[in-house]
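Q: Could you fold this chain for me?
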Amino acid sequence: MSSRISTRVAAIAESATLAVDAKAKALKAAGRPVIGFGAGEPDFPTPEYIVDAATAAAHQVSNHRYSPTAGLPELREAIVAKTMRDSKYGITSDQVLVTNGGKQAVYQAFATIIDEGDEVLLPTPYWTTYPECIKLAGGTAVEVFADETQNYLVSVQALEAARTSKTKAILFCSPSNPTGSVYSPEQVKAIGEWALKNNIWVISDEIYEHLLYDGATAPSMPVLVPDLADTCIIVNGVAKTYAMTGWRVGWMIGPKDVIKAATNLQSHLTSNVSNISQRAAIAAVSGNLDTVHRMGEAFNRRRKLIVALLNEIPGFDCPTPNGAFYVYPSVKGVFGKNIRGKTPHTSAELATILLEEVEVAVVPGEAFGPSGYLRFSYATSDADIVEGIGRIKKLLTEG
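A: Sure. Below is the predicted structure, expressed as structure tokens.
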């Protein structure tokens, strides 16, 4: 008897980050004092001027109707202007496709260029959704791991060692989710030149482009390697920069033929993105970055706080990230230790112990690659950081 669920969909793993966040929220709703470090979303409200634009848009009858699949012309033009302002990358509006969040942009990028049997090099640790999108497209994710001693940054040499005749693309993300690591301009250029030389597509996730610290920069790869533009797809969105995770507006930037093909796919998949959200996104990307910078100052303060506190815990080794709003400590030093009668040997086991014993929710490293790590999002209050990390330290230093 055949399975009720298709092999293709049955093979997909649930989003570990969303699962942890859902569990933490359910426990909170039940009255438990859970502190959640799981979700990758800013804890700030969407800026008021963006909300006002959406409110006004809701009263315009034209926004109650279907609009072009590729996105409102005004938004696509605004993305063109924003891309030049922020990245110094010159594009045209027919190189832009507006999607239902950055996650749909990632899926459609792989679905548009990957064929059955193609391999995609995946710098690891990786965002949990990347390998599932590759799998859905018929491709095979080839993990290229860099540990904490390399600041989680893969080298050209490691990529070259993983390349085969089946290598079609590489997924590049800087600043990184889950590690917060940022590639230097020299590293970005070297990877871009290597990809160009070997005729390998680059899918570059720039969703955290504005969340940078300590003077770090995140140049767009085709700006540093202009000839790469014809084999590069950029994915981005308003979610992280403008605290708009729930509005679901992302986009793809790429060669015109790829964007046209992806638009055809989206026309059958979802049609247009909500017009109200698109109008809000116009206000977001067209406005100044003052609010973004204020949020960044808060994230920077929390970054320093959480790194200092985590490194006080025996068995934890937490590099200082230069971007995004995550830290990714190695916790291998805790493995094999007795914690209230329980002995973790994996980061998944340790994460379960932290939730059950001190009601702190974190995402284990298995969601992003090898075991041995935990991801903490510091897109939460200073008070929660102090309390949550304090609970972990107290638990692991008992007796």
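A (continued): The chain has two domains: 7-45+291-396, 50-286.
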